[in-house]
Amino acid sequence: MPYTIIISEKAVRELDSLPQEIQKRMKEKLKVVRENPLHFFERLHGRLDFKLRVGDYRIIADIRESSSKIEITKVGHRKNVYQRH
């Protein structure tokens, strides 16, 4: 059963600020990872959340296996997406 994708309001704003081509690539990648997210996402070192690479951009998410949900919390360029705010 595919996972449900939930996108935080902050992540929606960040996604909307990216170039159209990057947005399209991210949306296509998310369609693929819904079936088996742990195959594509990689756990961040020293943290509980995961990252998904899309070129030079990253999608940061919490994956809840028990409820089959992927909650996207942050989207951005790799040089600054890992900074905590």
Provide an overview of this structure.
By secondary structure, the chain is of the alpha+beta class. It has a single domain (4-77), classed as YaeB-like fold (2-Layer Sandwich), CATH 3.30.2310.20. The protein has helices at residues 9-16, 20-33, 37-40, and strands spanning 4-7, 42-43, 50-54, 57-64, 69-77. The protein has a 5-stranded mixed sheet with strand order 1-5-4-3-2. Strand 3 and strand 4 (57-64) form a beta hairpin. The longest helix has 14 residues, at 20-33.
Supply database-style keywords:
alpha+beta, five-stranded mixed β-sheet, YaeB-like fold, single chain, globular
Entry summary:
The chain has helices spanning 9-16, 20-33, 37-40; strands spanning 4-7, 42-43, 50-54, 57-64, 69-77. It has one domain (4-77): RelE-like (YaeB-like fold). Helix content is 31%, strand content 33%.
Instruction: Write down the Rg.
Output: 12 Å
Strand content: 25-35%
What best-fitting shape do the alpha-carbon axes yield?
globular
Helix and strand composition category: alpha+beta
State the helical fraction: 25-40%
The spatial strand order of the largest sheet comes to 1-5-4-3-2
Major sheet size, sense and barrel closure? 5 strands, mixed
User: Under the CATH scheme, which class?
Assistant: Alpha Beta
Mean pLDDT: 94
